[in-house]
């Protein structure tokens, strides 16, 4: 008998349901780790898993109760949303996606895992893998952006990073939110989703399949329904697709109160039914509904649930605890040395700098030339907002502000004023702030959203600047008198700000860069390093264009300016404000000589695509190139551009090199176009048509 079989044989029903229950802890307070009532539930075995408790001492004390005072001594799973860092905060996931660098993606997850593990945590609810094409949806900030290909690459990197080669060396990852949460109707949080099977399989499932392949320890179903079936009760997608087809054998943990919400969805009439539905679908852990503990005993009596399913769920939970090494060493955490902290902080600065996207740069506005600088706007002095959504355990006042970063790096004079708040109607400071333009040689406008305007339950219908910031921007543009105005735009999503972009000389999409925000921005602004970040999501000109993304399928009447009856709007172009992949550098890269050659099949790719790259600019910089394909003919329509790869090449001024992009298998026989370029903008792509033969 294995340890787990032995335990299972000894467990009462209540103890089994305890292992299938996760409750939150009242950990924010100092003093007792949890209320006496909650401690009693751990002692009695009715709570087997906790979320939101961290701190090595607290973790140790609560774990001790489970291990030493409960009847079977089963250790607790201690979980927390370690999304983009724990105490040290890396850029928001959408920003980090724009690095297009799997090594960096893995490194930040690894550092976050070490950071969290030192704080007693052994499981995170990440990576968030919801492909999203609707920036109204606030949770676009947490995910990989609009590409399934990128989502899958991030899934692999993050799973490896959090979990490491041996789970007991890392923390358990959780791929969420399975699936299609990003397709919520009209971008409204928690709204239903309705999708074709084709889109589900091509767009929303691949990142999860990749996470499973990489060995992700757990999966969380989305709050939403898909085509009428709530994901928490979706036996087809959980049992058949996820467990059956993809081969996932880890733990499925419900989202927060999602099981009891099956009653609101209208598919269960009481707690017993809700619990039975979730169990039947394959959900192992009930987060915060209390539905398993309170509903399953009755469901068993009514014949709605089966003991076999309960035993299977408990076995999976105990197996995860065993794989994490918790039975042998339940006490995680402890101090980290200074070098570790410094290394993590340096990584945060590096990754933040690389996540900044130079959207526009005219009249050589950037990097900044010497002179007096006016730093205007409410985001210049914002610290806590720099963390973005899911700030983990990162202290609110810890992030380096833009102003502090510049003051440390800039030798020239700085004059500054916020001008207005991030939100609110106060316009009283605008005139004085705009007047600072007279005392400066160049103006830096720090504008955008507050961190709380993206993330969970933070959908927006207006994607412009909040509060009175547009008024501030206009006042500054009017007053600048030809001096360069550089806009730094903070946001958890693409914003639809065509006029702002039009009037600015340079624009940087800073997203929310994390703990090292100000230093990272100073690195780019001063020219200490060239920008290299790209946008992992298309920026719309207007909310009415949403959803807008690079891999749309072609229609029968593609847009043609000469013909009225073609696919278009009467009042806006079809083209985005910025395409997927867009991002400038301080270099000036030119591409030529695309060639296609058979690759070494052992390397896992079918073809190697090579291009010549030259940096004609005056700065050393790193260019990112994307590989797209288009199938010329297939039985169902295929996207006009399908992302198949990306790569980077760093070149000094005047230097040239060759970038090789491996093209994996997956093209159907027949003619296909191969494209390479710096973004999904068709104007910048070079191409070649190839004929794919039957295998
Ligand atoms: C709700 C969110 O949807 C999910 O992403 C998160 O992991 C849980 N709350 C736990 O905080």
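Q: What amino acid sequence fits the structure above?
A:
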């Amino acid at each position: 008998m294995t340890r787990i079989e032995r335990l299972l044989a000894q467990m009462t029903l209540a103890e089994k349901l305890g292992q299938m229950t996760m409750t939150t802890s009242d950990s924010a307070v100092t003093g007792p780790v949890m209320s006496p009532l909650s401690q009693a539930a751990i002692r009695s075995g009715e709570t087997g898993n906790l979320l939101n408790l961290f701190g090595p001492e607290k973790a140790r004390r609560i774990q001790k109760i489970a291990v030493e005072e409960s009847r079977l001594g089963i250790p607790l799973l201690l979980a927390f949303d370690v999304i983009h860092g724990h105490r040290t905060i890396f850029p928001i996931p959408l920003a980090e996606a724009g690095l297009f660098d799997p090594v960096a993606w893995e490194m930040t997850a690894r550092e976050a895992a070490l950071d969290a593990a030192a704080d007693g945590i052994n499981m995170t609810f990440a990576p968030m893998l919801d492909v999203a094409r609707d920036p109204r949806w606030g949770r676009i900030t947490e995910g990989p952006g609009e590409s399934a290909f990128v989502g899958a690459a991030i899934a692999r990197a993050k799973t490896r990073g959090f979990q490491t080669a041996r789970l007991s060396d890392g923390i358990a990852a959780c791929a969420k939110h399975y699936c299609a949460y990003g397709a919520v109707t009209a971008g409204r949080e928690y709204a239903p989703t309705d999708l074709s099977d084709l889109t589900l399989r091509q767009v929303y499932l691949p990142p999860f399949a990749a996470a499973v392949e990489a060995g992700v320890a757990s999966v969380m179903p989305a709050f939403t329904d898909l085509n009428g079936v709530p994901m928490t009760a979706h036996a087809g997608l959980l049992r058949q697709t996820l467990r059956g087809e993809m081969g996932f054998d880890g733990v499925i943990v419900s989202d927060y109160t999602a099981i009891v919400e099956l009653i609101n969805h209208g598919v269960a009439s009481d707690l017993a039914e809700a619990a039975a539905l979730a169990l039947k679908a394959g959900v192992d852990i009930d987060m915060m509904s209390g539905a398993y503990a309170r509903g399953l005993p009755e469901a068993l009596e009514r014949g709605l649930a089966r003991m076999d399913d309960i035993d299977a769920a408990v076995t999976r939970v105990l197996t995860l605890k065993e794989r994490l090494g918790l039975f042998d060493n339940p006490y995680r955490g402890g101090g980290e040395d200074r070098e570790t902290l410094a290394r993590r902080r340096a990584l945060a600065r590096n990754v933040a700098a690389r996540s900044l996207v130079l959207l526009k740069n005219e009249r050589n506005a950037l990097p900044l030339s010497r002179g007096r600088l006016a730093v205007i706007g409410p985001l210049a002095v914002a610290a806590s907002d720099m963390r973005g959504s899911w700030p983990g355990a990162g202290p609110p006042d810890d992030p380096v502000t833009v102003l502090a970063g510049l003051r440390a790096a800039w030798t020239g004079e700085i004059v500054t004023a916020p001008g207005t708040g991030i939100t609110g109607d106060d316009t009283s400071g605008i005139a004085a702030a705009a007047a600072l333009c007279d005392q400066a040689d160049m103006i830096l406008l720090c504008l955008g959203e507050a961190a709380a305007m993206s993330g969970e339950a933070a959908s927006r219908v207006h994607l412009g600047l909040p509060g009175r910031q547009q008024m501030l921007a206009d006042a500054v543009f009017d007053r600048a008198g030809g001096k360069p105005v550089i806009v730094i735009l903070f946001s958890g999503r693409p914003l639809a700000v065509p006029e702002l972009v039009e009037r600015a000389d340079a624009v940087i999409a800073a997203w929310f860069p994390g703990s090292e925000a100000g230093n990272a921005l100073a690195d780019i602004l001063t020219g200490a390093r060239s920008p290299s970040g790209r946008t992992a999501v298309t920026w719309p000109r207007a909310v009415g264009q949403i959803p807008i993304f690079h891999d749309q399928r072609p229609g029968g009447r593609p847009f043609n300016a000469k013909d009225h009856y073609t696919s278009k709007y009467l009042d806006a172009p079809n083209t985005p404000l910025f395409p997927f992949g867009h991002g400038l550098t301080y270099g000036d890269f030119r591409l030529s000589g695309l060639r296609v050659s058979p690759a070494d099949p052992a390397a896992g790719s079918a073809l190697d695509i090579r291009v010549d790259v030259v940096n004609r600019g005056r700065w050393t910089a790193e260019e990112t190139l994307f590989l797209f394909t288009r199938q010329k003919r297939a039985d169902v329509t295929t996207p006009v551009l399908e992302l198949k790869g990306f790569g980077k090449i760093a070149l000094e001024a005047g230097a040239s090199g060759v970038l090789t992009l491996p093209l994996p298998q997956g093209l159907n026989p027949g003619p296909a176009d191969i494209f390479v370029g710096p973004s999904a903008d068709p104007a910048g792509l070079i191409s070649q048509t190839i004929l794919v033969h039957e295998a």
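Q: And what stands out in the fold?
A: The mean pLDDT is 96.
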